[in-house]
Amino acid sequence: MADIDRLLAGEFDQWERNNFLRLVAQHPHADRGVLLRALQETEVLLRQPDVRPYAAAIALAGRQELEIHEVRRLPGLPGASKRTRRGVARALLRRGAR
């Protein structure tokens, strides 16, 4: 997964970055370290105006490798839309979080 970690540090336009983060978050072989890096990147993007990594945030919330408290903060970030808040909540419910 070191190659994916290097790609996360690469230069992308906004759409490509959001799409890549979603793909990483959904990748079945992404390990905890890579998912934490994707989570960190997603949090940074949700703090920026007009950047919408919603699919990545929702996918990350569903990953068992991440602790619930690590992803629970995503809906509270400034750029989190209603769709993101609802999607993260649903993903956490599927994991058994309340």
Task: Write structural notes for this entry.
The chain is mainly alpha-helical and 98 residues long. Helix content is 61%, strand content 0%.
Describe, in short, the structure shown.
The chain is mainly α and 98 residues long. It is 61% helix and 0% strand.
Please render the helix and strand layout as text.
Layout: H1 2-8, H2 14-26, H3 32-46, H4 54-61, H5 68-71, H6 82-94
Helix pairs in contact: 1-3, 2-3, 2-4, 3-4, 4-6
Short key terms for the protein model shown above:
98 residues, globular, mainly alpha
User: Strand portion, in percent?
Assistant: under 5%
Largest sheet: none
Helix-strand makeup class? mainly alpha
Tally of DSSP β-strands:
0
Give the integer mean of the pLDDT values: 89
**What global shape is seen?**
globular
Number of helices: 6
- What is the N-to-C order of secondary-structure elements (H for helix, E for strand)? HHHHHH
Approximate helicity band: 55-70%
